Amino acid sequence: MNKYLLRLFFILSSIGFSNSALADDDLTGGLSLKENFELAKKFPMPSPWLLSAQCSACHGTLGTAFNEIIPPLAGMDKQEFIKKMQEYKTADASNFIVMGIIAQPITDEEIEAMAGFFAKLKPEPLNQEKIPRDVVVPEWAVMNKESE
């Protein structure tokens, strides 16, 4: 019985997915991308502080670095920030997979506001001592050199 329910679930979910996921307007609240941008223009822009919050997941809180791979945004030159964000918006998204997706919906006005905000922040170097050490790696996730 469970086997048949599982098959029915997969069939129904694939039908629903194929019909809805292909429509561009499903991803923008039922509007075309152009209509979505026109609607967004009618509302006031969020503060630069709020806009910058979306960057914190990768670039650290208020743009301060917490790893060696992703650059800090705090203290970044305003023109450099604007230039990089415009590159991400206009370049082939496959060149900048994450940033290409992130930068697309951000308006030029928002980019300029964020650039000014980050330029005024004091950059802080990565401080290994501040990184929490209470995270324990599960035994199953430890790489065993002997098994290689």
Overview of the structural elements:
This protein is mostly helical and 148 residues long. It has a domain of 74 residues: Cytochrome Bc1 Complex, Chain D, domain 2, CATH 1.10.760. The chain is 49% helix and 0% strand. The chain is built from 7 helices and no strands. The longest helix is centred in the N-terminal third of the chain and has 20 residues.
In the predicted model, the low-confidence regions spanning at least 5 consecutive residues are 14-22
What shape does the CA trace take? globular
Q: Report the portion of residues in β strands.
A: under 5%
What is the CATH H-level superfamily of the domain at 53-126? Answer: Cytochrome c-like domain
**What is the N-to-C order of secondary-structure elements (H for helix, E for strand)?**
HHHHHHH
Q: What is the share of helical residues?
A: 40-55%
DSSP summary: helix tally: 7
Question: Main sheet, how many strands, which sense, barrel?
Answer: none
Mean pLDDT: 74
Secondary-structure-based class equals mainly alpha
CATH architecture of the domain at 53-126: Orthogonal Bundle
Give the CA-CA distance, first to last residue. Answer: 42 Å
Radius of gyration: 21 Å
The CATH class label of the domain at 53-126 is Mainly Alpha
CATH fold call of the domain at 53-126: Cytochrome Bc1 Complex, Chain D, domain 2
Number of strands: 0
